Amino acid sequence: MSQYDVLVVGAGPAGSSTAFAAAKAGCSVLMVDKKKVLGQPVQCAEYVPRLLLSRCSISKNSIVQNIASMMTHLPNGEIIETRSPGFMLDRSIFDKELAENARDAGVEILSDTTCLARKGGKVMLKQGQINLDVEPSLVVGADGPVSTVGQWMGSVNKEFIIGLQYTLPLTEPQEHTEVFFQQEFFGGYGWLFPKGDVANVGIGVRLNPKDGNQKTLLNPHNTDQHSLRKKLDIFVKQLQDAGRVKNKPVSTTGGLIPVGGTLKSVKNDMLLVGDAAGHTDAITGGGIPQAVICGEMAGRIGARAVLKGDMGLLNEYEVEWKGFFGRSLENAVEKRVILESHWDELDEIIDKCWVAFRGYYGNRNF
Ligand SMILES: Cc1cc2nc3c(=O)[nH]c(=O)nc-3n(C[C@H](O)[C@H](O)[C@H](O)COP(=O)(O)OP(=O)(O)OC[C@H]3O[C@@H](n4cnc5c(N)ncnc54)[C@H](O)[C@@H]3O)c2cc1C
């Protein structure tokens, strides 16, 4: 059985950032992902705010274009433009490069490897058809919205937006993202995010927790998927009729976005980070910056705890990410409660519940 200081489950932005920081701090690190090709398929609308640059470098290869502003379309037809500097990424390149950085720092990476279970100090993995056991000092769950490590810790996301997205040719390139609030998109919104001569066009709606098993929801035969696809087809037709996008989708993707707020992220010798920790913004659905930034914190603090042999130090991780993102993530959850309970009055309450408006921030300074 192989022994490691740190096992990172999941090689998305949270996992690779954690693994990189832990290896840099001197730990032996194994990172596993059930995907055969890291970073693919992409399940993301691929916008990141420029803020991310202050905490991590983004290579030119993964930036498709700059974004200057955001247009918010309200149900009453009003359109509001706000400054929103950022980038549209190619997530497959972004995720691959983060994983390569981790590998260059000494992280051992196994793709096509699923983390199955834990018995005592032993973690069971399956690579293809081969069973592997490893014995890590620290386990980091960076395994996305429906996290296996989170189940071991009793910290699981329970509330989700379900998103479905096409990539379609754009009629004209543009430097702004667009967000569409419509009654049909309960608890969520439609989006058009440009990527050069194509755009990611999608919708996200609130998933009723009673509607089914989250793991099967992304199955195209699922009834929720059917109704979502119908809504997306109508939305795309509206955009086509308005001359904004053309032709048929080049590709389709989707996924779950946790919107219930942050979870307890430290237990014994385990940490959660990124979507697994509910670090996603409950209003925008954005989670890439939190995954990368909290990943760095998890790797650095986790390594210190392991190398000093003091797992009590792991609590500093929760203190640090709460200090950085806690208030803004809490505010998003509060705003989601208002948004959903007043959905029929969307035009009246949206200026308190959407990030483009001053009222969203109240008197707080995040
Ligand atoms: C439709 C959609 C649009 C989005 N658009 C945006 C956006 O524009 N901007 C933004 O900032 N955020 C966006 N998000 C959210 C963003 O994608 C996530 O917040 C981000 O990917 C979180 O990174 P992560 O590393 O925590 O998780 P993930 O990227 O989900 O990575 C988790 C990894 O864990 C692996 N894994 C899971 N279980 C296991 C297991 N048992 N064993 C081994 N491996 C496992 C998975 O294969 C996966 O590679 C969007 C999400 C969706 C669904």
Describe the protein's architecture and organization:
The protein has seven helices and 16 strands. It is α/β, with parallel strands linked by helices. It has one domain (2-361): 3-Layer(bba) Sandwich (FAD/NAD(P)-binding domain). The strands form two sheets. Strands 1, 2, 6, 7, 8, 9, 15 and 16 form an eight-stranded mixed β-sheet that branches. It has an eight-stranded mixed β-sheet with strand order 3-5-4-11-12-13-10-14. Strand 4 (63-73) and strand 5 form a beta hairpin. Helix 5 (288-308) runs antiparallel to helix 6 (315-341). The longest helix is centred in the last third of the chain and has 27 residues, at 315-341. The chain binds flavin-adenine dinucleotide. Residues 9-15, 32-35, 43-48, 114-115, 142-144, 148, 163, 165, 202, 254-255, 257, 274-276, 280, 285-288, 291 line the site of flavin-adenine dinucleotide.
Tally of separate domains = 1
Any idea what the shape is? globular
CATH architecture type: 3-Layer(bba) Sandwich
Overall pLDDT metric: 94
Low-confidence stretches: none
* Fourth-tier CATH superfamily name: FAD/NAD(P)-binding domain
Largest sheet: 8 strands, mixed
Q: What is the count of β-strands?
A: 16
N-to-C CA distance:
46 Å
Which topology does CATH recognise? FAD/NAD(P)-binding domain
Number of helical elements:
7
Q: Give the strand content.
A: 25-35%
Which structural class should the secondary elements be placed in?
alpha/beta
